[in-house]
Amino acid sequence: MGERYLASKKILIIGGVAAGPKTAARVRRLDPEAQITILEKGQYISYAGCGMPFYLSGKIHQFEELYSTSYGVKRDPEFFKSERGVDVFTGTEAISIDRANKKVVAKDVATGEEKVFEYDKLVLGTGSNPITPPIENLDLAGVYRLNHLTDAEAIKKALDAGEVNDVVIIGTGFIGMEALDAIFSPRRAVTMVEFKETLLPGILDPDMGKLLYKSLYEQGLEGRFGEKVLKLEGEDGRVTKVITDKGAIDADAVILAVGVRPNVKLAQEAGLTIGETGAIAVNEYLQTSDPDVYALGDCAENTNIITGKKAFAPMATYANRQGRVVGDNVLGGKSTFKGILGTGVLHCMDMNVARTGLGEVQAKALGYDIETITVSTFDMTHYHPASNKIIIKMIAEKGSQRVLGMQGIGKGEVAKRADVAATMINYGGTLDDLLNLDLGYAPPYNTPIDPMVHAGNALKNKLDGIAKTYTPEEVQAKIEKDEDFVLLDVRPPHQFNMRNIKDKRTQQLTLSELRDKLDQVPRDKEIVTVCVMGSRAYEGARILEGAGFNNVKFMEAGMEGWIFDLDDL
Amino acid sequence: MGERYLASKKILIIGGVAAGPKTAARVRRLDPEAQITILEKGQYISYAGCGMPFYLSGKIHQFEELYSTSYGVKRDPEFFKSERGVDVFTGTEAISIDRANKKVVAKDVATGEEKVFEYDKLVLGTGSNPITPPIENLDLAGVYRLNHLTDAEAIKKALDAGEVNDVVIIGTGFIGMEALDAIFSPRRAVTMVEFKETLLPGILDPDMGKLLYKSLYEQGLEGRFGEKVLKLEGEDGRVTKVITDKGAIDADAVILAVGVRPNVKLAQEAGLTIGETGAIAVNEYLQTSDPDVYALGDCAENTNIITGKKAFAPMATYANRQGRVVGDNVLGGKSTFKGILGTGVLHCMDMNVARTGLGEVQAKALGYDIETITVSTFDMTHYHPASNKIIIKMIAEKGSQRVLGMQGIGKGEVAKRADVAATMINYGGTLDDLLNLDLGYAPPYNTPIDPMVHAGNALKNKLDGIAKTYTPEEVQAKIEKDEDFVLLDVRPPHQFNMRNIKDKRTQQLTLSELRDKLDQVPRDKEIVTVCVMGSRAYEGARILEGAGFNNVKFMEAGMEGWIFDLDDL
Known about the structure:
The structure is a homodimer.
Chain A: E1 10-14, H1 19-30, E2 35-40, H2 52-56, H3 77-84, E3 86-90, E4 92-98, E5 103-108, E6 114-118, E7 121-124, E8 128-130, E9 143-144, H4 149-160, E10 166-170, H5 174-183, E11 189-194, H6 206-218, E12 222-225, E13 229-235, E14 238-244, E15 247-250, E16 253-256, E17 260-262, H7 265-269, E18 293-295, E19 302-303, E20 310-311, H8 316-330, E21 344-348, E22 351-357, H9 360-365, E23 370-378, E24 389-397, E25 403-410, H10 415-426, H11 431-436, H12 451-463, E26 469-470, H13 472-480, E27 485-489, H14 493-498, E28 506-508, H15 511-514, E29 526-530, H16 535-546, E30 552-555
Parallel strand pairs in A: 1-2, 1-7, 2-3, 7-18, 9-16, 10-11, 10-16, 11-12, 26-30, 27-28, 27-29, 29-30
Antiparallel strand pairs in A: 4-5, 5-6, 8-17, 13-14, 14-15, 19-20, 21-22, 22-25, 23-24, 24-25
């Protein structure tokens, strides 16, 4: 295999943030004689875009750390030249591709001077651009984005100057949530405005998004959902208010985070095929419609492994992993990037969020016949002092019992669980497989039956008809429709008194007295058992069924999953 | 499926620690009318054996927490009766099984009184017993085990009384290491004595075990390896010294942790088949040679998923997961437990340890044609303040490039990585699959290319002939054989000065000056490049190869993997 890489070639890479430099590094390692050139219109290269929130929050003190190696060397053009033998041109914007003659024209951003670069293989890592929503007065001072290093510098400057007290973040996707994590402080009023019904729409199912919001709300976040920003208002050129279709919000800083769009202008003008998602169409070798032109990272289209459908998924990990694939292939290799599951993880305030595969809403929209379960559990043995609660939602196909997706939130560890789910979904794993996975157990890491296995077992019980459940949403809907049923709370009084469903249907009978007091439970009504996390309610339901009650269900996830007692939710 | 479970049955379970109670819980949930009985010779049931070290260390304050539910209720016979409808007899030891008449004779441990219990299906969860090594004077006061709750109580009492200053732990398997974690303190001298060559023999490969020891040694642990304990000495009936084949060690407390053996006496006497490992033979339904008798947990034999070979693997997670399988099957189900990968995780002092699948030594002994790599890396983005270093060793089969095993140690997160490895090994995953796994990325959780993917890529580079390496052990062996080669250290001076290989072969030339100073590198000698974590040494090696040097390798894992400058290692 080594031999193949010896022919010297001109590899020209457009874009110097993540995908491009990674490609360059791989090419260099494979072929010491390749001529590698990177064109980057900005002033920084090979920087950690995902690290910007940590710079904002002060967790990273030196701005330079965002574009330094782990051993403290700045990744600037000199570094690329001396350590990698790669020519980097910053402040140099590619403006056209002449595919017939294999040339790229670029201009110096400062002087306007044009230069021509030749290539044997061209790599497009042109990234994405933030979407500019149709909101009036976005040019006011105090309006920020968080997409480029220069954005982070500007916000940090305003934060450090003490100018920022009322922050409005528009958009609650990953970037909006990361901005929230970075700037949230009890000393500031932070409001998030979201056009959809809750946080992280499309990333989490609405039930999970609302549970996340409940936790952040309790810490002081104000969320305004189903609300559309119409315009900004300012004084002396600085933003002072955000005006929505439902009112006005004070703001001395606004962070726009309504998403990004692939940057495909150059590719489009060069006649390369653009996919249905608006990103550059590529095959599994990451080749565009021109076999001598590759595309990767945010500007390139991905394929969902489960559905086979095309997806626009601008995630840093794809850009980096694709760099290796393109590096191989521009030198004649046949490496493949098979696709994505849309795995995402996020730390926001004191919550961890993770998801992979298809959500319930997504899966149903695609026509999958699915069942879901939501379980509340501890992330490690409950007696360990570092244990924390988490909520896991699992989505599986009926019949095949194939796992399609998983979402998790909580103060406890959920990222590990998403990685396990992503790995098993990659192989088409089923709920039975989950029980057989040999996940490592020790008290500081998980429970003897790992939370993922617990979720899988619970969903299997549900699919097998052993566990009959309502979700908290379904229980709330029954209450709202004023249905006649009993909400049987099986917790001991001290837990009941802390928080319960304040409703006329609620009846108390602890699990330990249930067997002896069956006569107190009406046999002519539907019974829905309730506890803190769901497992005792399940026990209670099984006791009642065993005693001949034939219309019994329990509430999944327990009171941990109940969000309907907060006025604002 | 629900219907199948309605026939009422007598389910008798012997053993009340983990496997038994889990089976009982599953049976109860499936069949409200089953008569379920648990016999336990000890006084505690359903307790968290794995939590004992946390009680010892003071992380758990109340002894009761080890046998309480997450909602604070003690799991005693009353709890099992009222909440689960299960009859539990503690202090009741089963002494014989009459399989022909489906009866078990048990005796009251206190009174000696015998009782007879009938069964339709019998479940053996008799656990394991600590091995008593041939050491003289084990009956001295101050000699402890850590296998049962009463052991934990005894050690805790001695610790709290301030009687324990010089502790010797005999054996460095999981239990020995957990004991170390629990009792280590700068105020005590703790010595571990191990007959094999380093920590966690058979669990970690020796190179990884030594790296772990290096870190614990720096914190104050004294390890004595390849040393055999012959006898204990005491005064006034209390232990004072441990005498080995190499000397004497002061000791006012000795913890014996030389492993456990399956408790199969009852099964053997009843004529049930005992497997080659000494544990009770079972099929994938966990049925013994008598189809009405099931065995699970420590007393039952497991099957390794990779090799198909039988294994004795006394791990809590297997006992718990098998409980569900046996619970299903005693009621006529066909659930299966497919086998194990020997996944294990451990937190000890400030180190995390994880392993799954086959180790290098194991794989070679079994005749697999393998390649390994050891990589040093950060567990998350290096600029994140919570990032820590980890070392991952990966083992794959040549040809198929199938991943066979993974081992990780470090202050950073490795348990997650073992779970991912275990999941992919479960499906026969390859190194190419690893690059395609959609693991979640965000700076607080990992690196854009996850450490596991990084390790996989590195091993693939090695198998593909792109990366040519020596392990630190191989470099050390070359030095010891006084071979003629150059150890080219490519780090900047400040890193070199902190720690380097003090040898006449060492030459310094930083990566950034290498391209310009190729004439300073001898062309007639083998060159081995070295850096902190291995990746710059790889770059350096590729630069030299590009410049026509044809005998170049780099040292895997870098100085992070170098253990030969500690006198005691």
